[in-house]
Amino acid sequence: MNQVLVKRTARSARMDLMVPGLAPRAMRSSHISRLFCRCVTLLLIASWTVTAGQTTPPAQQQPLSVNGQALPNGAAGEGYSFQLTASGGTPPVLWQLIQGNLPSGIHLDEVSGLLLGTPRAIGTFRFILGATDSGAPRSVARAEFTLKISPALTIVWSPAPGVQNDTIAGQLAVSSNMNENLDLTVIVVAINESGKAFVLGYQHFALSPRTSNLAIPFASSLPYGSYVVHADAIGEDTNTNSIYRALLDSSGSLTISPP
């Protein structure tokens, strides 16, 4: 019995002997597994590091530009408002008048880009407006604009008054450059050499916005004599209680003579 135990112990001792530089099979397998897991971990960490370092490049920013759309026409004495716009660049944007002159009564809000006011001058105005963004460095864009300011109310002869026997007759063409209705009164009179007035025509009606060349005929028989014809159109904007007026005179005297 003791011999058997001695033999088993000896066998076990021989199995446990370590050959220099060579581990037992079970130990070698465990060591290789740990090395493999460590390598895989290092590879994953390296992959994550590279991926994290690769940032997506930002989208290319569009250059700043001013939208140079046509400005709507305005009417003298009527409120005007138009919103300028810009695209691209780095907001916010500041606006400025670079060249030319705005119509009298109109100003540019440098923060909002709003053209605002009540024009007082009639004419066609050309100017250059610019926008400056908030980038570093700042970008500046500009565009040229044209703004036409017309009379709010106009009347013209169409045709001019003339004499037909004992009658003076003609026609007015009435136009409105307003964006609102006008309560309109039109009167045409002939004044003789003594200063006496004779009514040739009278109308009172609502004139629609942006009406062009509305015909208003007039005619009346008159005593013998020489006359000058005057036309007067008065329009009221009932929303603002503003009054607009247009006057017109004949180019010369008209004579009604006995047959």
Brief characterization of the structure:
The chain is α+β, with helices and mostly antiparallel strands. The chain has helices spanning 2-15, 25-53; strands at residues 65-66, 74-75, 80-83, 86-87, 94-100, 106-108, 114-117, 123-132, 140-150, 153-157, 162-164, 167-176, 182-192, 197-207, 214-221, 225-237, 242-249, 254-256.
Structure description:
- The N terminus is likely disordered.
- The chain is an alpha+beta fold.
- Strands 13, 14, 16, 17 and 18 form a five-stranded antiparallel sheet that branches.
- It has two domains: 86 residues, Immunoglobulin-like; 104 residues, Immunoglobulin-like (Sandwich), CATH 2.60.40.
- A hairpin with a 7-residue loop joins β8 and β9.
- The protein starts with a helix and ends with a strand.
- It is rod-shaped, with a radius of gyration of 47 Å.
- Helix content is 17%, strand content 45%.
- It is built from two helices and 18 strands.
Topology:
Layout: H1 2-15, H2 25-53, E1 65-66, E2 74-75, E3 80-83, E4 86-87, E5 94-100, E6 106-108, E7 114-117, E8 123-132, E9 140-150, E10 153-157, E11 162-164, E12 167-176, E13 182-192, E14 197-207, E15 214-221, E16 225-237, E17 242-249, E18 254-256
Parallel strand pairs: 2-9
Antiparallel strand pairs: 1-4, 3-7, 5-8, 6-7, 8-9, 10-12, 11-12, 12-15, 13-14, 13-16, 16-17, 16-18
